[in-house]
Amino acid sequence: MHAWPASDVPALPGKGRDLKIHDTATGGPVSLDPGPVARIYVCGITPYDATHMGHAATYNAFDLVQRVWLDTKRQVHYVQNVTDVDDPLLERAIRDGHDWTELAERETALFREDMTALRMLPPQHYIGAVEAIPGIVPLVERLRDKGAAYELEGDVYFSVEADPHFGEVSGLDADAMRLLSAERGGDPDRPGKKNPLDPMLWMAAREGEPSWDGASLGRGRPGWHIECVAIALDHLGMGFDVQGGGSDLAFPHHEMGASHAQALTGEHPFAKAYVHAGMVGLDGEKMSKSRGNLVFVSKVRRDGVDPAAIRLALHSHHYRSDWEWTDQVLADAVERLARWRAAVSRPDGPSADALVEEIREALADDLDTPSALRAVDRWAALQQSDGGTQEGAPGVVSRAVDALLGVAL
Q: Which residues are within 8 A (CB) of 155 and not within 5 positions of it... i.e. 6 or more apart?
């Protein structure tokens, strides 16, 4: 599966700062020192509907992680998946009378278009769950052979007790886990399971649903969590720098994925930091496909809104915060973009050296985009009130905003 084209990232003078970011597993900030190649895995979409602002906010956060690392002169090895076979996708296809593969391909293509328009840096490896199945089957077999998995009526489940570190990613107690498991695709009440929290690794073929040859597992399709584990281990290995996604993935998805990988390899941790973006709401509730309270990136773009303004709207809230999308949030971003573009349209302006360092400092401190925006606001206000003093300063600002915030002025 192919990703989307990369926009150029301007090189800035000097060198950026190492990233300090909030780690869900420890509940506090961690300083990341990835070495010459930083490794990041971000969980991708289930392509049964268009990209909404909640998706955009999540991928915006991890685009910033990449930009901070690139500014430190590191290479970035970024991997993202597409869950192109799953119950929600199959259910939507049946509901709308579409072929599930065509639905997945269409919505994945639209996602690529949205990411391109928003200038999100693409992953080096963009892998669909279906194409990963040949690598998933041996992992499930290995877990079974190690005694970390068991069969129940043809399905194969992972035993959470096989990983002594289970629970360390989310930090939740068993009752909270069971509640979230039921809400987020698990089956804690299925009779016969060794532990209600045990997640499915391989679902035996069901009539009328797609299935693949699972070798000794029989025909079926993979569970949700093992897909990402197989892709991450194949392309990044254990102990990569950041596992990213929305906050609703901390449990069960990232918790279970970590345990799968740790039971498979005997190594710990799966990722050095688990980083989660907050939820975007609309009309008082989390924006989600199941609720249908969505603002689609493609619709806003079709309405004539500059994608740069959409990014500024996302930047105006800290990535870890839960916030509400409103018409005013977008209007403020459109107005800010106009002010910034007017400020960089002149050949000279206030010195930009301090501004570049201020943006770097804000982003290195847990991706503090609101502080970065305020810094550029102050520079733009000085440009308007005092006029130019340094030739080429607007060009430096324009390149810095592009390189570090992904906003083209």
A: 200, 202, 203, 204, 220
